[in-house]
Amino acid sequence: MKLKTIELTKKFGSKTAVNTLNITLTNGVYGLLGANGAGKTTFMRLLCNIQDPTSGTILLNGKNIVRLGEKYRNLLGYLPQHFGYYPDFSAFDFLLYVSALKGLDEKLARKRSHELLEAVDLSRDSRRKIKTFSGGMKQRLGIAQAMLNDPHILILDEPTAGLDPKERVRFRNLISAFSKDRIVILSTHIVSDVEFIAEKIMMMKSGQIIHFGNPQEITSEIDGKVWECTVPTGMAEKYAASCNTSNLRNTGENQTVLRIIADRPPVEHAIKVQPTLEDLYLFYFKGDREI
Ligand SMILES: Nc1ncnc2c1ncn2[C@@H]1O[C@H](COP(=O)(O)OP(=O)(O)OP(=O)(O)O)[C@@H](O)[C@H]1O
Ligand SMILES: [Mg+2]
User: Fold this and answer.
1) Are 181 and 201 members of one domain?
2) How many angstroms separate the alpha carbon of residue 40 from the centre of ligand 2?
3) The pTM of the whole model exceeds 0.85
């Protein structure tokens, strides 16, 4: 599988949500990381051919996805960011319903629905009405419906929103097992969600992919530039305001540990530390909201 975008652009009036994206995705798990309004949902909707680009093209194995039409849709699984559930359906009936929409044969639909309910840990709740589900349960059902047709391209818009830590681990395992020989793209603004699941990170800002690569590759930009230093809590705000601070935590005893990104040690006793994806993210998106 090779999904390629050429000069992909989407404008809403004067706002450019996706800006001349040129990117090639082969099999693997991709984490699409960006602040609110960066363009993640728009990019995913373009990839799903739900939204028409203002200009540019998307090719699957060299063929325009618009021309592939239904053939392309049959290969796709999609979890929208705001997913509409049917409150009076049971989880199982809902999956059967989505299967019918996707044109799956009924016997296969039943089998897949059972398997996926098991995979997202909803087997015991499969006959309950969706309106009685918690947010995390609905989210897991949303992930299951996206996988019904055993898609070769799976696009999940903020799939981990509302999942608790245990469910996050389960989700990660599900995706790892599923992703062999497929393209999986998941968006989030929670760095730790993609750091361990995704092989490749696409960092998106103002409609462009500003970083692309595995976490080590993309953090190399700030190698040797991340410092940890302990300062009196009373001084922490001052440092945080004047330096590029990626993180701060109180250690009690009126001391605060700051992570600062700078070319030189920000204070004398600063210690050079290994950069993380979170450092890079906060470096780019600190206080960022692009809406
Ligand atoms: N239908 C639309 N009409 C007008 N503007 C839109 C529309 N959809 C998105 N936008 C704008 O395009 C930009 C990108 O929005 P998008 O929803 O793709 O961002 P996002 O990265 O998914 O954000 P979030 O993390 O909040 O989900 C934003 O400025 C948004 O306001
Ligand atoms: Mg979004």
Assistant:
1) yes
2) 5
3) yes
